[in-house]
């Protein structure tokens, strides 16, 4: 190995050693400085603590001196009871002296300060002593009240069934429905011509009575001597009233199955119909009708396709404190909602379960099959007693096609005619019954919450002839 290389290596090693020694010296000095600074900080804290203690001791001594001075000044004054709080000033030494001989044993006379130098101190400690023993001397504090639940809105009191029927007659009488009035104006003429009879038939067809029912009514009227001869308005009205009552069905049993003797409990009602007929609104109004009759109701929001349907149903039910079974998400299986609703109604032993279903077009086979599934699943818990088809009275004969398809898909037991107020389509009451063979059980005559009433044939006919 070259001598220069050896010298270089030795030089590098020497530099490294020197650097390490210098680093160690610097680190040692830094540690000593840190230790010295820490010791100085602790000494300063100790000095501050000592000064604070001295100040506290001086304050305590001053307080004791003040108390002793007050005790000396109060040498002949009576010591007031710690708990007594009198607004009057304490008696002076001069006023207390005459009473001392007469009552030498009274505890109100103060002793010399030398005998009781610390008398005032208990007065200052009385309050803390009392507060230190709350369990023995003070009643235990009442437990904090639990957070109050939000108050439920007061339930509305729905209108009674009888009052609704009376209001139904009045609304029909005041409506612009020209059906009965037009018939009466034609038939009140003397010696009706063939053209007059054609006008009668046209009026019936325009009112959606239906071709078959219109022809039957015209034939019956032609045979009535009270109309074909010299017409008396009173006789014409009486004859027309009887013929219309025969068509509407005066003796038809229109009671809901839940109101019949021996009805199941809970009695299940499924609401069906196309979109826009007022089906969900009718379900809410029907719940109010049952509540007015004193029945316990549960509702199932099985319309999971329309986003606002369940919310709409809850809005209606909240006003009369009716529980609603619904899904947490839109688009859930409606049959599962119906199953849960039937289980809850059974558990609560409710009188009625109303299941609202999604509006659907009558020409959609898969949607119509869904109705059959809802009924089958519900019947695993409870039998279905009623299927009500909600029809818009203003659609007239177009509603008949819908009604036939729904009747085939799920089997309906009754019809609810909504929007029957002021419409020229009142004749659908006659045609829908004739086509389906099921009665119109309920009618809606407005947008008010209690504008749903049991269908009264006599009230209906009297209303349209008024």
TrEMBL record:
Residue stretches making up the SRP54-type proteins GTP-binding domain: 439-452
Membrane association type: Peripheral membrane protein
EC code: 3.6.5.4
Region Disordered, residue ranges: 42-163
Catalytic activity: GTP + H2O = GDP + phosphate + H(+)
Main location: membrane
Compositional bias (Basic and acidic residues): 66-75
InterPro entries in the cross-refs: AAA+_ATPase (IPR003593), P-loop_NTPase (IPR027417), Signal_recog_particl_SRP54_hlx (IPR013822), SR_rcpt_FtsY (IPR004390), SRP/SRP_N (IPR036225), SRP54_GTPase_dom (IPR000897), SRP54_N_sf (IPR042101)
Feature: compositional bias, Pro residues: 140-150
NCBIfam families: ftsY (TIGR00064)
PANTHER family per the UniProt record, alphabetical: SIGNAL RECOGNITION PARTICLE RECEPTOR SUBUNIT ALPHA (PTHR43134)
Name assigned to this protein: Signal recognition particle receptor FtsY
Organism per entry: Bifidobacterium biavatii DSM 23969
Classification of source organism: Bacteria, Bacillati, Actinomycetota, Actinomycetes, Bifidobacteriales
